[in-house]
Design goal:
Structural class: mainly alpha
Radius of gyration: 18 Å
Helix content: over 70%
Number of helices: 6
Order of helices and strands: HHHHHH
Largest sheet: none
């Protein structure tokens, strides 16, 4: 079995170039307005699975998003120790700062009212997805998992939980 650290130099350069191209494409998607399309189609793909999970829990969309962000912070903290300390530390700080913003963005349970927030959510998801792929290529698994959990946090669908009724 070939060790990941003993890859031929040409393969490593190709992987690193592809990762840089993915990061550049994330910015181009953002600037060109296509990040919203990518994020929207990704959320639409995940929606049936996430809706099924929501039907099995009494947690709100915001609570599920908050739990996903907390898990993202944990994975980013692991990355501080095991992967890229500086990048991961910045990610931990940004996620800690952004946690209330994500909770607020996912607090709307009415589908129609949630559509107003979905545009900015789709934009962030469309920007993050190429960066997650780049981090996977660079073998930064904890950072990739952390960013993927942020995408998950933003992807929870509105109005999918159990009704808030009191049962005797």
């Amino acid at each position: 079995m070939i060790e990941l650290t003993t890859r031929p130099e040409l393969v490593q350069v190709g992987i690193q170039s592809t990762a840089v191209a993915l990061i550049v494409s994330a910015f181009l998607l953002l600037l060109g307005g296509r990040a919203m399309d990518l994020g929207g189609s990704f959320r639409a793909t995940l929606e049936p699975l996430l809706r099924q999970i929501r039907e099995g829990t009494s947690r709100s969309r915001a609570e599920l998003a908050d739990a996903s962000v907390v898990a993202a912070i944990v994975f980013a903290s692991f990355a501080v120790v095991f992967e890229q300390p500086l990048v991961a530390l910045v990610l931990v700080v940004v996620l800690g700062w952004g946690r209330p913003l994500i909770r607020r963005a996912t607090s709307e349970e009415n589908r129609i009212l949630a559509l107003g927030q979905s545009f900015s959510i789709d934009l962030v998801i469309g920007f993050y997805l190429p960066i997650v792929a780049a981090e996977l290529l660079l073998l930064n698994y904890f950072i990739a998992a952390s960013m993927a959990l942020v995408v998950l946090a933003l992807s929870w669908p509105a109005s999918g939980g159990r009704p808030w009724t009191h049962r005797p």
